[in-house]
Amino acid sequence: MERGSTMTDKKLIRCDWAGTDPLYCEYHDKEWGVPLYDDQKLFEMLCLEGAQAGLSWITILRRREGYRSIFDGFDHKLCARYTDEQLDDKLQDPRIIRNRLKVYSVRNNAIAFEKVIDEFGTFSEYLWSFVGGSPILNTFVSIDEVPATTALSDALSKDLKRRGFKFMGSTICYAYMQAVGIVNDHLLGCIAR
Predict the structure, then answer these.
(1) What values do phi and psi take at 31, rounded to 5?
(2) Of 57, 104, 114, 125, catalytic
(3) 110 burial via Cβ count (<10 Å: 0-12, 13-18, 19+)
(4) How far apart are CA 64 and CA 54, in angstroms?
(5) Mean per-residue pLDDT for 26-50?
(6) Across residues 164-172, what is the average pLDDT?
(7) Full-prediction pTM beyond 0.70?
(8) How far apart are CA 54 and CA 171, in angstroms?
(9) One of 49, 67, 128, 174 is an active-site residue; which one?
(10) Are 91 and 100 in contact (CB under 8 A)?
(11) Residue whose C-alpha is closest to residue 118's, from 107, 108, 126
(12) What pLDDT is stored for residue 191 in this prediction?
């Protein structure tokens, strides 16, 4: 089957977590595990993964357009300059998860993101340096084999926290690495592999 085939073909085999929700399947088929190098998209996924902490990914995915609208398309330069008043206004919008710490972390992480760019040229350079520029292609057969954290996610988490990032524990970092294609954990036999 071609990557991104239609949902109506009953022979499609996806990673178990994708389920049957069309939005989830679309995300699984076309985004998850695809290497990202664009800083704005990397910042968006960093913010969304942080927002997901303690929730299911589909909860955030269903609100992604609201997040994009409220946070100026995840333009890190704009996000870094939000005032407390602006963030408090955003907390009133039902299109996002209205958790004060998570909403305020967008500004915090944008500031930290800009510092990484100042040091490395791009956030992408920094992030991809953890894997020498090449994605890790795992060969898991079952979702039960996929870890929640690895030594690599531990290292990324530790370094991001040292740089001032919030909501970047090892589990969130591993999910982030999967989402942006640093790690490809599509199961063997999955159409998106």
Answers:
(1) -125, -50
(2) 57
(3) buried
(4) 17
(5) 97
(6) 97
(7) yes
(8) 11
(9) 49
(10) yes
(11) 126
(12) 92
User: Which one, of 161, 168, 192, lies nearest residue 26 by Cα?
Assistant: 192
67 part of the active site: no
Q: Which pair of structure tokens corresponds to residue 135?
A: 């994605």
Q: Which pLDDT value is given to residue 11?
A: 64
The answer to whether residue 32 is catalytic is no
Task: Give buried/exposed letters for 37-52 (b at 16+ CB in 10 A, else e).
Answer: eebeebbbbbbbbbbb
| Greatest pairwise CA separation for the chain in angstroms | 51
